[in-house]
Amino acid sequence: MTEQPILALEGLRTEFATGQGAPVVAVNDLSLTLKRGETLCIVGESGCGKSLTALSILRLLPRPYGRIGGGRVLLEGRDLAQATDAEMRQIRGRAISMIFQEPMTSLNPVLTIGRQIAETVMVHEGLDWTACMGRALEMLRQVRIPEPERRLHEYPHQLSGGMRQRVMIAMALACRPRVLLADEPTTALDVTIQAQILDLVRDLQAETGAAVILITHDLGVVAEMADRVLVMYAGHKVEEGSVEEIFDAPAHPYTQGLMQAMPHLGSGEHRSRLNEIAGVVPALNARPPGCSFAPRCGLATDRCRQEMPPLTGLGGTHMAACWAAGGSQA
Amino acid sequence: MGSYIARRILATLPVLGVVAVIVFLLLRLSPGDPAAIIAGDHATADDIAQIRRELGLDRPLLEQFILWLGQLLSGDFGNSIYLDRPVLGLIAERVEPTLALSLTTMAFAILLAIPAGVVAAWRAGSWVDQAFMALSVLAFSVPVFLIGYGLVMGLSLGLDILPVQGFVSLWDDPLGFAAHLVLPTVALGLVYTALLARITRATMLETLNEDFIRTARAKGLAEPRVLILHALKNASVPIVTTIGTGIALLIGGVVVTESVFAIPGIGRLTIDAVLQRDYPVIQGVILVIAGIYVFVNLAIDLTYSLLDPRIRY
């Protein structure tokens, strides 16, 4: 615990200008720490602010409306929220890399994959083009793409989805980043390919020592990959803990709901309907005054609807933001 | 790729054939007897019949067409009725000014419009964007001759910086050549600049929203590289299509511009030929322009596969 985290968010607030009145807040007062070599999974439904958290770290929020409205993004103690654009360009792709959900559309269709990997190396390490292409080839081997010499000169449309995600990973890791942000890297892929990609991420993480923030809504992926888990709901952190703490004793009703919505093999009730969490994440501009989850929560009381519950420690590293958690619920 | 080019060249033949038929019928079906026109006001019926025989106008239509086509293919486009000289020679004499004006106009439009469109899309909604787009509406709405006369009034007659009109060959006087081309180029080029800038902005705006642009930025690339290599290359197919259409539209604009600035090019030749009912010249000009048009389209189609690797034939 004394080791300085490689990446830390302190009270991150991401907001969008609306043209009239106050900006809407998409990520609210989010803090997290990420240690060297660690894997943190951020879990939540669509629209809860997971991807925007990652984009905030890289300062790639959609322009011109998105912006960091408060808090700090500390990379080894240095605040990226205050960095200049030129400094951010040095960091993107070199200290912090990102892979995206859609390998189909995230690669440039008119450039060869070799070129797309090599240009990252060229921009950050200033090597000559031959050396950069050499690195690209080496990276394609490392992500286990068959016939890398041939693939180097191919275009994205000539590759399958899983292959393209491998290329994205090769590109992200080409400059040996210390932090890898993976935004639903397997969601768009076949189940069999998903496992391969996750294995690959884990192997490369072990080889390079990179810390990983893995954004997902798939608790199966979390169980497989995470050291620690952070559950987000409507822009807030609602629960955080080690993977054991979260899976053994989910404290927040939202986390419990996510667990119950997962299919279980051999539980005797396969073929029955999965439990779903009724309702949807409230819109950014229509958040209730109290706990954001209260409208969908079976345990909600008047207090929940009036007052936002603070994050409270539940022993160990486990913490949750729920009035019901801590004593009555475990 | 080789076989594709061959197929595309073959595919232009029917188009050129249809053009040939229409051009041929233009003379035969138009009101007024060409033989009577050639013969002049004081000709007798015998004179006219004589001329008609010489031109082959008394033979069946199909026979005339085959004869005419045979002449075309051997490079004989007939003689001008008024000047009594080969049409192809007349056109060749007039090619330089028209070609020069067309090329400078396209170059002017491309060099101005693409950077403007890219910057406008990059900073969409900003004052720069709004200013560029307002200017493009203006340039688009004002007719060529108005811009032309306005420029002549201001820069030539008013400030006396540039020649009013006329044309000087590049080989005789390169400086004079350039000076004479400035005003016609601007007058004719503004419309295409406006059109091209708007298309560039629209396609760039779409491309800049693509996921791979976010990827490029996430790699730490600088904006110029993101805009030019990653975005513009993806947006290039519609832009090149517009440039191609622009070349076709240019032909109409050239006729007007050459009149305004008294440039002895193909446009002037066409107007004179129409006014004098010089049918062989009209036919020759139409055939040459149609040929250029088909060639430009072919070139553009072939360019697509260079710009976008997903386009394969």
TrEMBL record, chain A:
<dbReference type="GO" id="GO:0005886">
    <property type="term" value="C:plasma membrane"/>
</dbReference>
<protein>
    <submittedName>
        <fullName>ABC transporter ATP-binding protein</fullName>
    </submittedName>
</protein>
<keyword id="KW-0813">Transport</keyword>
<dbReference type="GO" id="GO:0015833">
    <property type="term" value="P:peptide transport"/>
</dbReference>
<feature type="domain" description="ABC transporter">
    <location>
        <begin position="12"/>
        <end position="259"/>
    </location>
</feature>
<dbReference type="InterPro" id="IPR017871">
    <property type="entry name" value="ABC_transporter-like_CS"/>
</dbReference>
<keyword id="KW-0067">ATP-binding</keyword>
<keyword id="KW-1003">Cell membrane</keyword>
<dbReference type="InterPro" id="IPR013563">
    <property type="entry name" value="Oligopep_ABC_C"/>
</dbReference>
<dbReference type="InterPro" id="IPR003439">
    <property type="entry name" value="ABC_transporter-like_ATP-bd"/>
</dbReference>
<comment type="similarity">
    <text>Belongs to the ABC transporter superfamily.</text>
</comment>
<dbReference type="InterPro" id="IPR050388">
    <property type="entry name" value="ABC_Ni/Peptide_Import"/>
</dbReference>
<keyword id="KW-0547">Nucleotide-binding</keyword>
<dbReference type="InterPro" id="IPR027417">
    <property type="entry name" value="P-loop_NTPase"/>
</dbReference>
<dbReference type="Pfam" id="PF00005">
    <property type="entry name" value="ABC_tran"/>
</dbReference>
<dbReference type="InterPro" id="IPR003593">
    <property type="entry name" value="AAA+_ATPase"/>
</dbReference>
<dbReference type="GO" id="GO:0016887">
    <property type="term" value="F:ATP hydrolysis activity"/>
</dbReference>
<keyword id="KW-0472">Membrane</keyword>
<dbReference type="GO" id="GO:0005524">
    <property type="term" value="F:ATP binding"/>
</dbReference>
<dbReference type="GO" id="GO:0055085">
    <property type="term" value="P:transmembrane transport"/>
</dbReference>
<dbReference type="Pfam" id="PF08352">
    <property type="entry name" value="oligo_HPY"/>
</dbReference>
Automatic annotation (TrEMBL), chain B:
<feature type="domain" description="ABC transmembrane type-1">
    <location>
        <begin position="95"/>
        <end position="304"/>
    </location>
</feature>
<dbReference type="GO" id="GO:0005886">
    <property type="term" value="C:plasma membrane"/>
</dbReference>
<keyword id="KW-0472">Membrane</keyword>
<protein>
    <submittedName>
        <fullName>ABC transporter permease</fullName>
    </submittedName>
</protein>
<comment type="similarity">
    <text>Belongs to the binding-protein-dependent transport system permease family.</text>
</comment>
<dbReference type="GO" id="GO:0055085">
    <property type="term" value="P:transmembrane transport"/>
</dbReference>
<keyword id="KW-0812">Transmembrane</keyword>
<feature type="transmembrane region" description="Helical">
    <location>
        <begin position="99"/>
        <end position="122"/>
    </location>
</feature>
<keyword id="KW-1003">Cell membrane</keyword>
<feature type="transmembrane region" description="Helical">
    <location>
        <begin position="134"/>
        <end position="157"/>
    </location>
</feature>
<keyword id="KW-0813">Transport</keyword>
<keyword id="KW-1133">Transmembrane helix</keyword>
<feature type="transmembrane region" description="Helical">
    <location>
        <begin position="281"/>
        <end position="307"/>
    </location>
</feature>
<dbReference type="Pfam" id="PF19300">
    <property type="entry name" value="BPD_transp_1_N"/>
</dbReference>
<feature type="transmembrane region" description="Helical">
    <location>
        <begin position="235"/>
        <end position="261"/>
    </location>
</feature>
<feature type="transmembrane region" description="Helical">
    <location>
        <begin position="9"/>
        <end position="27"/>
    </location>
</feature>
<dbReference type="InterPro" id="IPR035906">
    <property type="entry name" value="MetI-like_sf"/>
</dbReference>
<feature type="transmembrane region" description="Helical">
    <location>
        <begin position="177"/>
        <end position="197"/>
    </location>
</feature>
<dbReference type="InterPro" id="IPR000515">
    <property type="entry name" value="MetI-like"/>
</dbReference>
<dbReference type="Pfam" id="PF00528">
    <property type="entry name" value="BPD_transp_1"/>
</dbReference>
<dbReference type="InterPro" id="IPR045621">
    <property type="entry name" value="BPD_transp_1_N"/>
</dbReference>
